[in-house]
Amino acid sequence: MRDIDIAEAARLSGVRASTLRFYEERGLIASHGRRGLRRLFDPAVLDRLALIALGRAAGFSLDEIARMFAPDGRPRIDRRMLAAKADELERTIRKLNAMRDGLRHAAACPAPSHMECPTFRRLLRAAASGAIGERKTRRPPRKSFAATGREQGRARGS
Amino acid sequence: MRDIDIAEAARLSGVRASTLRFYEERGLIASHGRRGLRRLFDPAVLDRLALIALGRAAGFSLDEIARMFAPDGRPRIDRRMLAAKADELERTIRKLNAMRDGLRHAAACPAPSHMECPTFRRLLRAAASGAIGERKTRRPPRKSFAATGREQGRARGS
DNA sequence: CTGCCAGTTCAAGTCAACTTGAGGTCAAGG
DNA sequence: CCTTGACCTCAAGTTGACTTGAACTGGCAG
């Protein structure tokens, strides 16, 4: 069994079939051929998907990730880019640390109201001044891990 | 000068006027009255905005933040919720730390290709298994700090 | 040969947090 | 009094990463 179909790829990678199609459209992965209508993927697509997941986890956008592959398909990852992203993560981590400490303190603070707690007020000023920075809340991805092989959540056909 | 108008509130808080209107619509802040058409805010709105900024920075959604205010307007912040968010941040921080270390290693790794670097491959597996988790990229907010009093970026009227 | 159903395409929808545009209003300055 | 322009409302657009719906196809089991 050389090539795998989209359901297999989805099952093995934990990435939904619709996402695989989307990634292909965006040039992040490529299908190797078809059997009838059905895409066939080289099993190497799984490594590629892992790489994409890694990039996403590191905070790269899909466009950035796409640029990490040479035209011939081999990963061509700029080490400086990695270092830069590491630095960015470092800064984010610092802010989150401050935030976490502040939250923990506020949660344990004996002051009758948070507004009377100096630590809380210090946090407040930091946030107001933008020193802490803005983050996006991520929405829960509706799938927590590998799918079951068919596209999920479409149980009731019309 | 008891009440401030929206431009003043925007200037003092660094939050855009359009955002203030949006927040009012969402029930996060309230205007105190009008002069003609123009909203008037109690200066206390600035504290409230700081609190909102803090909540956003901590990763709360606007809906969650809205729920942190009692119907009468006083902040009623659940300490358990703060602790829970602190724990969540803790987990995020741990993942980001792992990510950062991995990126730094990959950036410095002497292996000819990243795929041959054991550390990189370990990271890859972690990302593929979902152990590292997904984050959203935040987009740059188009304003870096306090506005100048008028709404920005609309220099050329038609 | 026939039907099933997992696959296909393409467009449109979702989500969050805003921003932008069009068209309208009104307090104040000249 | 009349213009000016900052403010108003309401609807629609933006962004990124997908998901979902509708309509269709074709390999394969029976």
Please, could you describe this protein's structure?
The structure is a homodimer of 158-residue chains. Chain A is mostly helical and 158 residues long. Chain A has two domains: 4-66, Multidrug-efflux Transporter Regulator, Chain: A, Domain 2 (Orthogonal Bundle), CATH 1.10.1660; 79-128. Chain A has six helices and three strands, in the order βααββαααα. The first copy, chain A, has a three-stranded antiparallel β-sheet. In chain A, strand 2 (33-35) and strand 3 form a beta hairpin. Chain A is elongated and about 70 Å long. The two termini of chain A are 34 Å apart. Residues 139-158 of chain A have low confidence and may be disordered. At the A-B interface, helix 3, helix 5 and helix 6 of A face helix 3, helix 5 and helix 6 of B. Chain A binds a DNA duplex (30 and 30 nucleotides) through helix 2.
Number of separate strands of chain A: 3
Note the total helix count of chain A: 6
- CATH C-level name of the largest domain in chain A: Mainly Alpha
Q: What level of helicity do the residues of chain A show?
A: 40-55%
Q: How would you classify the quaternary structure?
A: homodimer
Which pair has the most extensive contact?
Answer: A-B, 59 and 56 residues
